[in-house]
Amino acid sequence: MTVYILDFIIFAIGIYSLIAKRHIIKKIIGMVLIEYSTNLFLILIGFRYGGIAPILSPDMNSVQFSQCAVDPLPQALVLTSIVIGLGTLALMAAYTMKLYEKYKTFDMCEIKRLRG
Amino acid sequence: MKKKKIEEMVHDENLGMTLIVKTVARMMIAMILLFGFYIIIYGHLTPGGGFAGGVILAIAYTLMMLAFSRKLALKKLNNFWASIWDNLGMLAFIVLGFIGLNFGYFMFNFIWHGTPFHLVSAGFIPLANIAIGVKVGAALYAIFIGLSIYGRIITTEEETK
Amino acid sequence: MTALPIIILILMIAGAIVAVETKNMLSAVIAAGVVGFGVSVLFLFLRAPDIAITQVIVEVLSLIILIRVTTNTDNEAIEKRIDNFANITGLIFVGLFIAFCVWAFVDMTPFGNPLMRVSQHYLSAGLKETGAANIVAAVILDYRAYDTLGEAVVIFTSILGAFVILRKHGKKKLVEKDTEEIGIPE
Question: pLDDT by residue (tens digit) across B60-82?
């Protein structure tokens, strides 16, 4: 349980960065932190003490393997989620560059004021 | 603009980074590409698979773009062909799914499974890995081209004003 | 046994605090990279080599993208006056969030003893049904291939969005101009 709480402190730091910071890159960093901690939490749930990686080797029968391997399902879900995170990060970076080119600033309050 | 050959562009001092970076990158890029293909093809036997291998392929081209210049990387694979490869990978994955529809359900594993722990085994999983790898690699390289080219046009126009 | 993840997690929390609070944007981005590489080391400890490989490479590429955004711009911090309202609201929200998390984690399964109702079948019958030795590859491409299809569509849409946003002129003008200035081949 200590590990879970330490993981969610990173999530909380990401939320704080999203709420309280006005710089757009700080907000992007907050989103990235939230994504990392969620991925890590899903993997932490599937861990098993003394487990092995869910990859079979030829000298192993499947009954013994199913008793000692870690959970493969969260790993498969997180594997797709990481690459999606990279795609959305690139989309956010594109928005940021376009906003900077239009308003010449990274400040969210300034951008709101300079509408139009 | 006269067209230069790729070998001249590699040794041009005005393009890209310094000589040390270029020498190291020239040795590394082939190995990174080879490692990426290994990760993709052996994805059903060892850790890896289409996603990891695709990002490795994209990283190799990104290293080429950073170490040499944008001109050389675009001569190797420009944005038009990157998007073509992207669409081809996506199309191959969907077509594999629809072929399975003839034998049972969508994404049915229709090829003979073979003996386990060999390279040719596991039905259509290696083929789907190759499709996903090409798709992810081309897509991420295309995103990097977009961030590099279009952003740079904006800054050069500002300087001329 | 749980000492190693706790040490790495504390290092990651320190990196996250530095990334949020520092003034220079370049060091903030690099401190966010500390969190990403810490996550990948932790994945390796948690017996997930597939994800560890992917996380290392994705972290490198996302650092390159974020540094690309921060260069050619002014790197100074914006906060000249301290915004008390936003800080206090954020801290209250974070406190409530962590309190509810602790309340929810009491009923969860303890660390190291997973439930594994669905995945027991994947582990015991995966090799026979799909023929792949890597069970994670069997899950993402055979049992749950719809998930992978959705992921491919998301990446497709995101690069479409990035290209549409970043283009300044129409397509014809861009090609004419770029062949002279930047050197995109036709």
Answer: 988 888 888 777 777 788 778 88
- Cross-chain Cβ contact A86/B55 below 8 Å: yes
Angle at B113 between CA C54 and CA A68, to 5 degrees: 55
Answer with the residue of higher pLDDT: A18 or B116: A18
| B contacts of C179 (beta carbons < 8 Å) | 1
| Inter-residue contact C143 to C118 (CB < 8 Å) | no
Q: Which of A23, A29, A54 sits opposite C32 (nearest CB)?
A: A29
Determine the length of chain A. Answer: 116
What is the C-alpha to C-alpha distance for residues B136 and C139, in angstroms, rounded to an integer?
19
In degrees and rounded to multiples of 5, residue A55 shows phi and psi of -130, 120
pLDDT 10s digits, A26-75: 889 999 999 999 999 988 888 888 888 888 888 877 778 878 888 888 88
* A73-99 average pLDDT score: 87
Q: C43: distance to nearest CA of chain B, Å?
A: 13
Residues sharing a CB contact under 8 Å with residue A59, sequence separation 6 or more, in sequence order: none
Chain B residue with Cα closest to A55: B46
CA distance B61 to C64: 13
For residue A31, what pLDDT is reported? 92
Please report the ipTM that was assigned to this predicted complex.
0.87
Of C178, C105, C57, nearest to A2 by C-alpha is C105
pLDDT value of position A116: 54
Are the beta carbons of B43 and C54 separated by less than 8 Å?
Answer: no
**Domain A2-113 architecture:** Orthogonal Bundle (1.10)
Residue B135 neighbours by CB distance under 10 Å: 25
Mean pLDDT to the nearest integer, C116-122: 82
User: For residue B59, which phi and psi values (nearest 5 degrees)?
Assistant: -65, -35
How far apart CA A88 and CA A94 sit, in angstroms, is 10
Chain A interface, mutation test: which of C1, C45, C64, C69, most A Cβ atoms within 10 Å?
A: C69
Q: Which residues of C touch A44 (CB under 8 A)?
A: 5, 46, 111
Q: Which residues of B touch C166 (CB under 8 A)?
A: 146-147, 150-151
Tell the residue number behind the tokens 């392929």, with chain if given: B57
